[in-house]
Amino acid sequence: MPSLLLLNGPNLNLLGTREPEVYGTDTLADVVALVESTAAGLGFTVTALQSNHEGVLIDAIHEVRGVASGIVINPGGLTHTSVALRDALTGVALPFAEVHVSDVHARESFRHHSYLSDVADVVVVGEGVPGYARAVRELAEVIRRA
Ligand SMILES: O=C1C[C@@](O)(C(=O)O)C[C@@H](O)[C@@H]1O
């Protein structure tokens, strides 16, 4: 069965307890379960990884080159800082969806710029944890059309 890589970056392991007024109370386990069930309904298996380390995320992206059909990523704070993460995603040339739980555009100005959005196939911002399900559905459609 075709597969998707689900990546969550720094601090997303704290989802559910971290700033619940911003990120809500759903946990990372809830995110993984939602992505797995949404993907399964569309015929994809999911490999999920959360890391607080940029290089671990980059290595995981390299490892699915030619293997996975696409990547769903919430890069956390690396969104706003990491050229290297962007280069990894463009380097493996897999379609990917960028997800943010919070509405980054309604927050501090340093969150308004993403190093990924202009090369992402799908961007979902500010829809809470359910936004991951939309990202999977839209990414699956991109993959289907390719
Ligand atoms: O860690 C995060 C989470 C986030 O990616 C989100 O899901 O809303 C938004 C980022 O600005 C922040 O650094």
Mean pLDDT: 97
Distance between the termini: 17 Å
List the helices and strands in order. EHHEHEHEEH
How is the CATH topology named? Rossmann fold
> Order of strands across the widest beta sheet?
2-1-3-4-5
Q: According to CATH, what is the class? A: Alpha Beta
What is the total domain count?
A: 1
User: What helical percentage do the residues reach?
Assistant: 25-40%
Q: Could you walk me through the main structural features you see in this protein, from its secondary elements to its overall organization?
A:
The protein is of the alpha/beta class. The protein has a single domain, classed as Rossmann fold. The protein is built from five helices and five strands. It has a five-stranded parallel β-sheet, sandwiched between helices. Helix 4 (83-92) links the parallel strand 3 (70-74) and strand 4. Helix 2 (28-41) runs parallel beside helix 5 and helix 3 (54-63) runs parallel beside helix 4 (83-92). The protein is globular, with a radius of gyration of 14 Å. The mean pLDDT is 97. Residues 11, 74, 76-77, 79, 100-102, 104, 111 line the site of 1,3,4-trihydroxy-5-OXO-cyclohexanecarboxylic acid. Homododecamer. Pfam families: DHquinase_II. Its EC number is 4.2.1.10.
SSE arrangement:
Blueprint lengths: L2 E6 L11 H4 L4 H14 L3 E6 L3 H10 L6 E5 L8 H10 L3 E5 L21 E4 L4 H16 L1
Parallel strand pairs: 1-2, 1-3, 3-4, 4-5
Bound molecules: 1,3,4-trihydroxy-5-OXO-cyclohexanecarboxylic acid.
